[in-house]
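Note to self: the last two entries modelled the partners one at a time, which told us nothing about the interface. This time every component goes in together.
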Amino acid sequence: MNVDLSTRYLGLTLRNPLVASACPLNQDPEFLLRLEEAGAAAAVFPSLFEEQIEFQQQQIFGLYEYGTESFAESLSYFPELEDYNVGPTEYLRRLRAAREAVRFPLIGSLNGMTVGGWIQFAKLIEDTGVDALELNVYFVPSDPRHSSEEVERRYLDLVTAVRKAIKIPLAIKVGPYFTSFGHFARRLVDAGADGLVIFNRYIQPDINLETLDFFPNLALSESYESRLSMTWIAMLRGRVGAYLAATSGIHTVEDLVKILLVGADVGMLASAIYRHGPDHFTRLEAGLRAWLTEKDYTSVQQMKGSLSRENCSNPEAFERVNYMRSLVAYTSKPI
Amino acid sequence: MDRSYITVDGNEACASIAYRCSEVIAIYPITPASPMGELADAWAARDIPNALNITPRVIEMQSEAGAAGTVHGSLQTGALCTTFTASQGLLLMIPNMFKIAGELTPTVFHIAARSIATHALSIFGDHSDVMAARSTGWAMLCSSSVQEAQDMALIAHSATLKCRVPILHFFDGFRTSHEVNRITSIDDDTVRSMLDEDLIRQHRERSLDPDKPSLRGTAQNPDVFFQARESCNPFYDAAAEIIRETMQEFAEKTGRNYDLFDYVGDPEAERVIVIMGSGVGAVEEAIAELNSKGAKVGMVKVRLYRPFDSKAFVGILPKTVQRLAVLDRTKEPGAMGEPLFLDIVASLHEDWIGPRRLKIIGGRYGLSSKEFTPAMVAAVYAELAKPEPKRRFTVGIVDDVTHLSLKWDPDFITERADTVRALFYGLGSDGTVGANKNSVKIIGENAGLAAQGYFVYDSRKAGSVTVSHLRFGKHAIESTYLIQRASFVACHQFNFLEKMDVLELAAPGATLLLNSPFDENEVWDHLPREVQETIIERKLHLWVVDATAVARDVGLGARINTVMQPCFFALSGVLPRDEAIGHIKDLIRKTYSKLGQSIVERNIAAVDQSLERLREVKIPARAESARHRLPPIPGVAPDFVQRVTSMMIAGKGDLLPVSALPVDGTFPTGTTRFEKRSIAIDIPIWDADLCTQCGLCPLVCPHAAIRSKVFPESELKDSPEGFESREWKNKEHPGYRLTIQVAPDDCTGCGICVDVCPARSKEVAKHKAINMTPKDEHLERERSNFDFFLNVPEMDRRTVKLETIKGSQLLEPLFEFSGACAGCGETPYIKLLTQLFGDRLVVANATGCSSIYGGNLPTTPWSCNAEGRGPAWCNSLFEDNAEFGLGLRLGVEQKHLIARELLRHLGPKIGDDFVASLLSFSSTDETSLAEQRERVAVLKKMLGQDQSLEARRLLTLADQLVPRSVWIIGGDGWAYDIGFGGVDHILASGVNLNLLVLDTEVYSNTGGQASKSTPRAAVAKFASGGKHSCKKDLGLLAMSYGNVYVAQIAMGANPLQTLNALREAESYPGVSLIIAYSHCIAHGIDMSTAMTHQKDAVSTGYWPLFRFDPRNAHDDLHPMRLDSRKPTLPFKVFAEKEARYAMLARSNPSEAKELFAQAQADIDARWRFYEQMVGVTRHAHEPESVEEVKS
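The predicted structure of the combined assembly is written out below.
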C-alpha cells in the first residue's frame, strides 16, 4: 500500500512532516542539500539575531574607538576596513545562497529585539525569496515588575506589526512559559500568525564550580522533552486556526508519530541532526512509512490529530488528574 | 581647473599625491609621518589605482633604513617610488639617500619634519632632521601649510623626473602634518598631466636590465672618484630652474602660484625675516599688523632650500632692505650659525649688490613644536630695529643663562575678530577630538567657510586630556599657532575645572559650555572660586548640558562627543542651527553607517537630545565658592619637583626658563608619585576578611597602585580609622599583619586586580577580596590610608621568600604610577623586575611604549627606595637598544674590574682578609648583597680617610663591588624588526646581559602597525587584510646559540613561571632573553580581563610557555622545558575574543577561514617542534662570570 506522507504547513505542501529546525548547521547550502537529499521536507534557516547584530555593532564601535585620539603617536590602533559586515548583509547573502541552492521550501527565521528591527529584518528576509518566515521569539521576562499581560502584549504587537509588513506565511515560535497558553495561542493567531511552533527550548546557563561563574552549556534535547509539545498540540489541535509545528525532543520515529497523532502538521528536528546527521531524515521517513503501513493508515493526513484532546478517548489525561496518577504510580514503585 | 574643497590634515594632503605618483612605496612607522604610510597601505589594500592606473605596491619594512634600501632598489629598476618618514627615520635613510642622489635617480621622500633626539627624544616638529640630510645631494622643498603639503608634493614628483635630482619634500611635523584645514584638492587628471610620460620612459630606460646590461655602484679609486663626483654638477645647476618652471606649470593648471622664494610685506621694507615652514603663517599675520601701523617690514618664504638659488633669493629682496633676521627651526651647537642663516649670509655676501651692506642676524625658534606666534615675530622685528641687535638669538623661550632670547609682548595678538576661535578640553576617551575633526569637516566642506583644527594631546596614555583648537571664518586661516584668545570654550569634563585653568585663554564675553552633572540652578555653587571669578570678570556666558547623562541614556557610554558637538554649533553661531544639525546627522550617517545602524541611531538620538538639555546659567554678581582649584603638586615634594616638574604638570612648562632645566637631559627619578592625577572612577577596595594572601593583585597591577605590605602589629598603633589589616599567614613572622592598599589617586581603575582575585565571598559570589567601588565614596579614607601605608617600613628583603608570588609582592616596586594605558600588559613585568632587582638595576630602554610611559616628561615612574637606590634608566634609540645595553654592561664590568684591581693593590693597607671577603663575593641572594653593601660602606669609610690616588680612585668605584643587573628592555618592534641585528649580536656575545622583550605583537606606540611578531591572521595596520606570514620565533632563534637562557612567559597565565624566569635569567652569567606576552589595547580586547585572557593564549598553544636554561645542558639533562601543557583548546577560542582576529572573520569570512586554519597549523607545528626539543640533550659552552674570567 502506498502511504501518502505529505502534509501541509504554512500553506506549503511538504513531501513529509519532517522539517529541519533552525540551527547553525543549516546556514551551509551544501548541508541543506544533504538534508534535502536525505528526505527533509523543508528547513528553517538559522535565525537572524537583531540583538546580536546590535551587540556586534556596539562591540566593534567600542573597540574601533577605544584608545583613539588620546595620544599623539597613536591616534588609532586599527586600520579602517572597508566593510565590517556588521549589518544583516552577510546573513542575507548566505540566506539567498541557500535559497538558490535547494528546491525544498526554505523558511526564514528572525529573532528581533525592537519592533523597528523586527519589521525591517522581516522585510529583508522576505525579499530573499524564502517561502515563509518564522519569528523566533526568545524573550526571558526577567523583570518581575512586568505582568503577564505586558509580556503577552509584547508578542502580540510584534506579530501584528510583522504580519502587516510581509506577505509570506508567518509562523511564531514561542516558549511554554505562559499563564494560559491556549488562550495566548489564540491571541497569536488572531494577531496574524499562520502557524505556531511549540516549544522553543530556552537554554539555561550552567555554573562552573571552579570559577563560580555562569557559562553557556548547550545540551541537546532528549525524547522525553517532546511530551510538552505533544501535550499542547493535542490541546490546541482543532481549537486554534493555525498550523502547528512540534519542536524540541523529536528524535525517533516514535516521537514523530506521537506528535503527528496529537495533531502536529510537522515535526522539527535539530538535536537529532547533530546526533545522527542528515541521513537521519531518511531513517525517520522510512520509519514513519513503515509505522503507517503497519497500522494501516493511508496517509499522514489521516492520522494527524487523531489523538488530539478533541479526538482522543480520555481527554482527562491531559489535565491535572493525570499528573497525580503518574506521580502516585511512580512513587508506589519499589525503590 | 578643479575647485573642490576637502578638509584633511597635512599628512593626508601629501600622501594623496605621493600615492598617485608612485608605483612602489616602502614604509616604516614613525611619528608624525606614520599616517602617510598607513593611508597609502589602506588605499592599496582597497586596490585604488594611482595616476598611472595601477595599484602601488606598498610594503612595510623592518626599519627606515630598510625602506630606503627597498626604494633604492626599485628605483634602479625604473619604478616610480616614494617613502615617508621623520626624525631618526630620516637619519637611517641618509646612507641610501647619498646613493640615490649620487646616481641621479628621480624620487621624492616626504618628511613630516621632527626633532632629532639629543638630550631627549621629542616627537614634535622642527627642522633638525631635514637639516641633517642636507649634505646628501637631495633637493629640499618645503611646504608651510596643509595646502602646500599637497601642492608641493605634486611639484616635487613632477620636477624630480625632469631634473633627475631626488627631492626631499618636507613640512612641519604636527603643526602641518596633523593640522586639519580646508584645502583645494587636486584631481587625478591634473596629477597625471604633471607626470611627463616621456620623462617616465627615460627613467625606465635608465634602469638595470639584463637585456641591456650595465653596472652601477662601482668602487672607485683616487684617480677618478673626484672627477666623477663633479660630473653631476650640471644637473644641480639646472635643478632650481626646473623646479621653478614646474611651479609655473602647476600654477597654470591649478591657479596657485609658488616660487622658489616668495616675498610678503611692504615692497619698501627695511626689515625682513627669512623663514621656511609653518612659521610663515605667524610672520604674515605679524607683518599685516605691523605694516598697518606704519612699519615697513617683510618676509621671504623659502620654498626650495636645496639647491639654494642665491640669485633668486637676492632678486626677491626689496632694494630698500637694511636688515635681515634669518630664522632657523633647528640648532647646531658650535656652529657659526644655523644652516639657513649661514646660507643667507653666504648668498648676500656673494650676490647682494644693493646700495648698502646688510645687517644679518640669525635666530632659533620653534624647536620641538614650541609655539611661534605673531608676538614673537614682532619681537624679532623689534630686535632688528635696535641699533645693535643680537647677532644670534632665540625667540619663544626665556634664556636666562646665555641671554639669547628676545622678549615678546604677550598682548600682541593678531587673531581676527571675525574668526570663531573655539577651544575644547576633553578626554581622549570621550571622543572630543573626533567630533571636532568632524566639525571642521562640516564647516569646511559644507558652509563655504575656512576651517582649521589643531589638536594637543597628553603625554600620558591613561586618562589623557586633549585640547582642540578650532578656527572658522570667511578668510583663509593661516594662523599656525595655538588659539590665544578663545571666543568659545567647551569643557567636556566637569572635574577639569578643579585640575586645570580651562579659562586661561577665554576672551572677554566668550561663551563657556560645560558638561555638567549639575543643572543651571545648581552648577554655580559647584564651580571653583577661581572659575567663578574669571566668569564674572570676563563676563563669560555660561551654558550647561549634562552630556554624560544623555550619552548614557542613548547607549553611548562615555562618548559624549555627539552631545557636545550640537551644543557648540547652537551656541557658536558658525552655522544656522538647523543647518548645522542636518550636517552633523549626515556626517554621523557617513561615518558610522559601516559600523552599523544601531551606532548611527544612537548618535543621532544623542544629537536630538543634546539641545533639549542645553541651558544657560544666570551668573551671580559675586564669586563665593569655597572650592578651589587643586595645586599641581599636593603636599610636600623635593625642590626640583616644586620648581620645575610642577610647572610642567600644571601645563605651564612654556614659562620655565633655560636655567630651570638640566643641561644634559638628566632628571631625578621617582616623580610620578607627586602627580596625583586621580583619573579612576572606580577603585579597588580590599576586603581583608576574604583575602587569601595570594599576592596576585599587587603583582598584576600595571600601575603599582595596589600594594601589599607585611609588618609587626605594633606598626598599627597610629593607623588611621578604617586602615585594614589581617594576620599574615606565615610561621616565620608570627603576629605580623598584612595590608593590601590602593593608591586612590594613582589607580587608573582598570579592574585587572579584581579580575585575577581568586577569593570570593561565600554568601555573595560576585563579592571578592578586592572589589571595584566608586572612588568618591572612599577617596578621603583611602588617601589617608595610603599615606599611612607608605610610612609603614618595608619588609627586610633578607626575610622575604622571593621565590613565591606573595613574597615577591612584599618587595617595594621601584616603577610606579606610570602613564601607560589603563590595564597595560607590559608594565607589570617591569614593575616585578624592579621589585626583584630594582636597587641594583641598570636599564637600557628601546624607544617605544616603554620609553614613553617610562621617560616622557613631566614625570617618571622609575623610582628609588628609602636608601636612595633604584633603577638607573636610559633610552638611547629605537634601533640600537641591544648594543646600547651591551655598552652599559661593558662599562659596568670595566668599572667593576678596576675596583677589584684597586682593591687588591690596597689590600695591605685595608687588610687582606677584608679585601678577600670583598673580592670573594659572588652570590646575589639578598643576604649576601646586604652583607656586601655593608662591607662596601666600611670600605668607603676607610678610603675616605686615605688621600692616596688609588684610594680616591677606588672610592669613586667602590659601589661597583655590589653587582649590577643590566637589563635591555623594549618591545617587539625593536627586538624582532629594527633592532634585531643588534639583538642577534648580543645573543652571540656571551656577555652577562638580560633582554626583556615586551611582546605586544604589534607596534603599539605608533598605533598598531604589524611587526614580524604579529601572528598570522591578525589584522593590524599594514596588514589590514590579516597578516599572511607567520610570527617570527625569536625564542627559537636565540636557543639556536645553545648558550643563551631563553624564556617565554605570560604573567596572567602562569605568574610563578614568570617569577622563576626573571630570577633565573638574572642569575645566568651569560645572555638571557625573556619574551613576555604583553596584552595591549591594539589587540582589541577587554583590558579589564586581559590577564585572565592570557590563560586562553597559553591553553590554546598560541603562546606556549617554556624555559631553555643552558645550565641544564650537562650530564644528559635537557635544557628545554615546556612550562605549559599541551594545547587543549583550538586557536579559535582565543581569537574570537580579540578584535584583531575577529575583525577579519567579520570583514572577510572566507579569508579568515583560510588564515585561521593556517594559524592553527602554525600553532600545532610549533608545539610539536617544541615537544621534540624538550627531549633533546645538548651541551653548550656556558659563559663564565667576569670574576671567573679575570681572577
